[in-house]
Amino acid sequence: MSIQSITTDFTNKGIKLLSQLGNNNDSIVPMLVKDSMANGAVVYTYSKEGGKDDAREKAIEGFGTGAVWLLMIPALKWVIDKTVYPFFKLNPNFDTNLIINPKDIAAETAKNAKLEKANPIAKFFGNMIHDGINKNAYKNIQDNFINNSTNPASLAEKEILSTLKDKNETAKNIITKLKLPEKLIPTNAQMYKGFQIGKFVLATGISAVALVNIIKFKQKSTEERIKKDVKKKNNASKILINKNLTSDNLHQNFTSKLKNTNKNNIPFTGLSAFMTNPILNTLILDGVITSTRLAEARKGEKKEVAFKEICQIAFIYGLAKPIQAGFEKLGKYFKMPVGLDPKVLFDKDLKTKIFESKDKIKEIKNSGKNIIEEIYKLDPKHSLIDILEKNGALKTVEKDGNKAISMISAIKEKDLLKSFNNIEDLAENIQNIKAIKGYKVFSILANVAIATIAMGVLQPKATILLRKMLNDGDHRNPAIKKLEEEMHKNPEQA
Asked: Quick one: CA dihedral 134, 416, 98, 71, positive or negative?
């Protein structure tokens, strides 16, 4: 392998990583990086300014919960995708939103009509929970695809769509062997929907149980360490009784040791084993995490926990897109549009592809027809399809040198329109491509840095400052402090 090929491979991997890091729609890489870096900064800050036990708890809770929602969930889903789906001859990549019937189309039409008349707040939340799929358009596309497609790359997907209403053969054999009623045999469509719900419920349930146990372990381990410390002081005191029989000496020695005892003397051990891996997380799952932490929070620390959770949810979810949008607007103002993915911007044939795509977009818009249907009519090897795929607006499948736009992964109109606008903006400013690339990299890294600093540095420092203001300059965790005081008052219970 030549040095040039190694360099090219390294560059391509770097661009792919950058692409994932800047994808705040469906990539967990930004969440992984922000969460891991912030947790490390939080632990360091508390170890220096909050105390060793406090830092230890933050490490267990931060990296422990991270291990749950950044490792356990994808591992579980991967196992199901690789075992259960193949067993029932189903494709785990199939988007169940593409299981469409006439009732869905009617419901979508009625919902859209209501949203048009709704107030701005209702419209905002209504659009947020809407799947964004034009079901009427997709029904026409599916019917045409099933009846007319001859592309070899699409044969497997054609079979999936054409057999959705059929009874699942594996399930049929199982139910027949068990001598159960035939009406219990599910269709392939029912199996897909059932498995999707099952995976979600299973993942959320297991995560919730694991999170509760991690938080309880965190608090129990702190209690045990304090008990051990107090017990150690008790034993030391008993030895002093044998050597110094006077009560004055005992009181003097024991009091001296208590005065010199604080949680900063307890050794801290990092938990590197809780390093995380990506998962597809949901706001619902983080709702479980937040409610669990608040429910299990000890007296005196609930406000701290709430503040931390607000910061984390805000910068991992709520503000990730607005911050990126802010950078994009700023870039557009300075004629450096960065709305497209790095995989597009760093393409060696970018200029040719951009202008070919711009012409095709103009043609599609002027046709007056549904843009999704027009996209499916294009040659899968067209420059526009390549750019849209790299920008995450659609997926393609390949087989034996043939290429086709995927029919089991939905294309959303809003994603297409946004990509169209970004392509047109770039075409108008292509002369600034060098600056555009640099600003794109900066905007992605800055987004991550802002979240990391806010969650990992500013949040814990603000918490510690608040502690000092409310507790006469004491920087320690109020809950841990109270536990220590109770143990020292009643050392015989330790």
From this structure: negative
Instruction: Please write the tens of the pLDDT for every residue from 321-354.
Output: 899 999 999 999 999 999 999 999 999 999 999 9
88 DSSP assignment: T
Render the burial of 405-414: b for 16+ CB within 10 Å, e for the rest.
bbbbbbbbbe
pLDDT value, residue 305 = 83
Summarize pLDDT for 186-242 with one digit per residue, the tens. 999 999 988 888 877 787 778 778 777 877 776 677 666 666 666 665 555 444 444
Whose structure tokens read 């640099």?
438
Q: Taking the mean position of all CA atoms in its chain, how far away is CA 313?
A: 11
